[in-house]
Amino acid sequence: MYMEGYFLISPAIEKIEGPYSKDMVDPETGEPLWVDEEMVVVAPPDYPQLAAGLEIGALYRAVRRPNGSSGFLHGLDSLQEYYDWCEKLVSLVTNGKKLKERPNNEVEWSNQLSGLVEDSEKYPETGGRGPFWELLRYGLRGMTFGPVVCQRLAADFRKWQSAAHALDDSNFSGWYSHIWSTFAMADEAGIVTYGWCWTEDMEPKLGIETLKLFED
């Protein structure tokens, strides 16, 4: 199936202990350690809490289950539909707030959209960050969602489930269930990443320096 993006879900993970170096050996296989960006915990400089429950800059890998599987891809077959869904989600939880226009820049779109759910008086316990804030702000920006935030997002989905289905919009409900399951699968001891064509030159990432240790 064609995908314009995907979330990678690792329901259970294990940390690869350092110190890290280019000639590091895999402690399990004895072979040279193969590392890709999705193994490195990275976080936004302005919100490192996104990776809460994990060590920023550390390497983690998915734990294999008895059937040999270790993770899941939840595809986004249309980024345009995903943008539309996110904007409808914001309208749902804010009683109708909308962007004046959709920015072409993905970071600006994320910042403006997540800003619509901010309310310091209504959500003082989270510093003003309202429902789904982390998803809206960082969902498509190549960061690591740690288990604490995955659990929080799964709780948001549970809380707003009835209101979402009351819209009687099958497409919206389908996306709602799909993205909910993405974070629910990792809300105990896992991680979620969005690793589709996102490089450091687009936006700084805390922890990315670990990956550079393994570059040729």
Explain what the structure shows.
By secondary structure, the chain is of the alpha+beta class. It has one domain. It is 32% helix and 11% strand. The chain is built from 6 helices and 6 strands; from the N terminus they run E-E-E-E-H-H-H-E-H-H-E-H. The strands form 2 sheets. It has a 4-stranded antiparallel sheet. The chain has a two-stranded antiparallel ribbon with strand order 2-3. Helix 4 (147-166) packs antiparallel against helix 5 (170-184). The longest helix is centred in the C-terminal third of the chain and has 20 residues, at 147-166. The chain is globular, with a radius of gyration of 18 Å. It starts with a strand and ends with a helix.
Condensed summary:
This protein has 216 residues and is of the alpha+beta class. It is built from six helices and six strands; from the N terminus they run E-E-E-E-H-H-H-E-H-H-E-H. The protein has a four-stranded antiparallel β-sheet with strand order 4-1-6-5. It has a two-stranded antiparallel ribbon with strand order 2-3.
Topology:
Layout: E1 5-10, E2 13-16, E3 59-62, E4 72-76, H1 79-93, H2 106-115, H3 133-138, E5 144-145, H4 147-166, H5 170-184, E6 191-193, H6 209-212
Antiparallel strand pairs: 1-4, 1-6, 2-3, 5-6
Helix pairs in contact: 4-5
User: Distance between the terminal alpha carbons, to the nearest Å?
Assistant: 33 Å
What count of structural domains? 1
Share in helix: 25-40%
Number of strands: 6
Helices and strands, in order, run as EEEEHHHEHHEH
Content-based structural category: alpha+beta
In terms of per-residue confidence, which ranges show pLDDT below 50 for 5 or more consecutive residues? none
Q: Can you summarize the main beta sheet?
A: 4 strands, antiparallel
Q: Mind telling me the C-alpha Rg?
A: 18 Å
Q: What is the number of helical segments per DSSP (H or I, 4+ residues)?
A: 6
Oligomer classification? single chain
Q: What coarse outline follows from CA principal-axis ratios?
A: globular
Strands ordered across the widest β-sheet: 4-1-6-5
| Average pLDDT | 92
Beta-strand share of residues: 5-15%
